[in-house]
Amino acid sequence: MEVREKTNFMDNATLHRLKAGDQSLFAELVRDNHRALIALAVPIVGQSEAEEVVQNAWLKAHQAIATFEGRAQLRTWLGRIVINEAKMQLRKRGRELLFSDWQSDEQSGDALADRFNRSGRWQSPPADWETDTPEDLLMREDLASCLEELLDAMPVNQRTVLELRDTTGFSFEDICNELSLSASNVRVILHRARSQLYKLVDHYEETGEC
Amino acid sequence: MLTCREVVNSADHLIERELSRRQQLAMKVHLLMCRHCRRYVRQLRALLQAIPFMHSKASDSEVRDVMEHIQSHQSESR
Ligand SMILES: [Zn+2]
What we know:
Chain A: This is RNA polymerase sigma-70 factor (ECF subfamily). The complex is a heterodimer of chains A (210) and B (78). Chain A is mainly alpha-helical. Chain A has helices at 2-6, 12-19, 23-45, 47-64, 74-92, 141-153, 156-167, 172-179, 183-207. Chain A has 2 domains: 3-92, Rna Polymerase Sigma Factor, Chain: A; 101-207, Arc Repressor Mutant, subunit A. The longest helix of chain A has 25 residues, at 183-207. Chain B has 78 residues and is an all-alpha fold. Chain B has one domain (4-77). Chain B contains 4 helices and no strands. Chain B has helices at residues 4-15, 21-33, 35-50, 60-77. The N and C termini of chain B lie far apart (69 Å). Chain A binds chain B through residues 1, 3-4, 6-7, 23, 26-27, 30-32, 34-36, 38-39, 55, 58-59, 62, 75, 112, 116, 119-122, 125-126, 128-129, 131, 134-139, 147, 162, 166-167, 169, 187, 190-191, 194, 197-198, 201-202, and chain B through 3-6, 8-9, 12-13, 34, 36-37, 39-40, 43-58, 62-63, 65-67, 69-70, 73. The structure holds zinc ion. Residues 4, 7, 30, 34, 36-37 of chain B line the site of zinc ion. Zinc ion is lined by residues 4, 7, 30, 34, 36-37 of chain B.
């Protein structure tokens, strides 16, 4: 997706400088990606250890940046390092990345399910979102705290898949491998996470509050 | 004909271009006739473009912490 690229927009010349060891460019890379990487680590290792995991990941990334080949987006490349660090952290603690409760997510259901009537037509259709630029859609100040609350309350499987796919750009195949989940499972989980976000924005657009 | 609920459930696949030609056609037919679903799909696209930006940029002090951590390791290994 085009706009996804913009989170790591860097032309070839800039990328070359970054790989050659330009520290101020690396600091910009940190600025643009640090919080997204923390958000990626939190559902796996927990809030208290996410910071340490991402710090170590930055260290590895800094050592390896010259080998970045540009086949993936930078954020995806960074995300992969974070996932590896997070798994290492789990191993150190004698834990495993194993969400046994992942299958039993049925009760959380689909956030938009009650918007349809019995024959499957819209009963309360979506509001008309007034968006100038899509990038700003979730960045509005009065939405920030509700968004944070929603993400914190999201089942861990939904949160992980959402961060992997939609903020970090992992492929479905990679997500299935990382999490040992079937493709159809990943898609259902992702759909539920997206529906929650959709509902949040829709409610905000309709009522001006969340 | 697809119901609106089915369109919403398949909209992710439409956007990710994972539908067969037949499924895609069925979606298109529904979307031609249903403005609610058209709006849903259009706004879902916008939402997916917005998600990568939902985590704001790190603060100066967060960036400084990371960079100092890196530098301290560099001087150690020297
Ligand atoms: Zn419809």
